[in-house]
Amino acid sequence: MRRYLITGASRGIGQAIAVRLAEKGKLLLLHGRDKAALQRTCQLVKAKGGESQILIAELSSVKGVERLLRQIGQKPVQVLVNNAGVAYVKPVSKITLSEWQENLAVNLSAPFLLIQKLLPQMKKGCTIVNILSVAAQQGFANWSSYCATKFALEGLSLCLREELRPRGIRVVNIYPKATRTGLWKKVSGKWPVEKMMEPEEVAEAVYYAISRPKEVQVENIFLGNILGNL
Ligand SMILES: NC(=O)c1ccc[n+]([C@@H]2O[C@H](COP(=O)([O-])OP(=O)(O)OC[C@H]3O[C@@H](n4cnc5c(N)ncnc54)[C@H](OP(=O)(O)O)[C@@H]3O)[C@@H](O)[C@H]2O)c1
Known about the structure:
This protein has helices at residues 12-21, 35-47, 62-72, 97-118, 144-164, 183-186, 199-210, and strands spanning 2-6, 26-32, 51-56, 79-82, 127-131, 170-176, 220-223. It has one domain (2-223): 3-Layer(aba) Sandwich (Rossmann fold). The radius of gyration is 17 Å and the shape is globular. It has seven helices and seven strands, in the order E-H-E-H-E-H-E-H-E-H-E-H-H-E. The termini are far apart. The protein has a seven-stranded parallel sheet, sandwiched between helices. By secondary structure, it is α/β, with parallel strands linked by helices. Helix 1 (12-21) links the parallel strand 1 and strand 2 (26-32). NADP nicotinamide-adenine-dinucleotide phosphate is lined by residues 8, 10-14, 32-34, 37, 58-60, 83-86, 106, 131, 133, 176, 178-179, 181-183.
């Protein structure tokens, strides 16, 4: 059975991706930290005839990523969706070193380690999807820590894509603008929800990219609300 790993599948964009990819014949490995929320994603996947397995791991430490890798096991993963992410929104002068390091660990080092460890088993037609952001290419006041992680993940991703062309492994970058998820409740400030898009739109983009014929690489998808940035 084909195995797809989605990190941060307990809510928001990751949950929407899980639901969109759910179908008979695929095992979705759903990662997160919140077991109850992951069980909800599992129910949604099941309702679409899909199968799933819950993997719980903290991604801010190497030990946590290793715990996730142990749960994934040795069998190949055909699609890896690096989606889990965290944002701290504050001026550069106010970001603590531990927030900076956690941001880098979750948004950049965890995807790097997962890619590195899962790649050896990947074959032609396999796909790595990195959920980047408009903040991977554009700076926004108070988003420096988050932007730094997304710019860096984009750099990793673009180089990886070139390295993997000869092996026929695809690397897809998704660049959503503001998306209506709980992420916005965790960052201080008032945000115009009406200028956000739904997470299902990001999920649709992921589905489109990975369901192309294996010799076709959808490289970058940029999407957002017609109203533009917040
Ligand atoms: N929302 C937007 O406007 C937007 C726009 C562009 C890009 N993105 C990107 O899209 C991705 C998903 O964001 P979202 O909006 O869906 O956010 P969200 O609703 O806050 O969900 C974040 C997910 O990441 C997981 N996660 C966070 N910190 C973690 C950690 N330390 N260890 C393990 N898992 C962790 C969470 O797991 P638990 O809840 O189980 O703890 C959750 O499943 C992120 O990479 C984000 O940067 C979001």
